Amino acid sequence: MINWDEYYNFSEYEFTCSHTGECFMNKNFMDKLQTLRTSLGIALFISSGYRHPTHPIEAKKSKSGEHTLGKAVDIACRGETAYNIMKAAPLFGFTRIGFKQKGHGRFIHIGTATEEDGFISPTIWSY
Ligand SMILES: [Zn+2]
User: Fold this and answer.
1) 81 partner at 20 to 30 Å CA-CA among 28, 34, 92, 104?
2) What is the domain range of residue 87?
3) Residue 6 Cα, ligand 1 centroid: separation in angstroms?
């Protein structure tokens, strides 16, 4: 179980699955995210956190993504903020990073799922 009091820059509702209302974030992931947030010293807007496997985005994939493990978030950002997240994330243990930095709804995905979880790591991609 997550003790949300440990993550003083974040609230559980920011990470709740928009489809089921559940929230099963991984503690180790949240520790890394709070460390990243503290280092950056800027607000991070979580556009997607935990997703249940039945969430529409996950349900259409052949294999559920790392959001279903509570080991990923999408952070709405662009420009200088996106640059700073990109620069810092690998230093704090985020080994799976995806970028959408074109058009509307720009974000960076950062994740910590491992080969043991069935995910390629480290890796980087664009949307
Ligand atoms: Zn994502």
Assistant:
1) 28
2) 4-126
3) 23
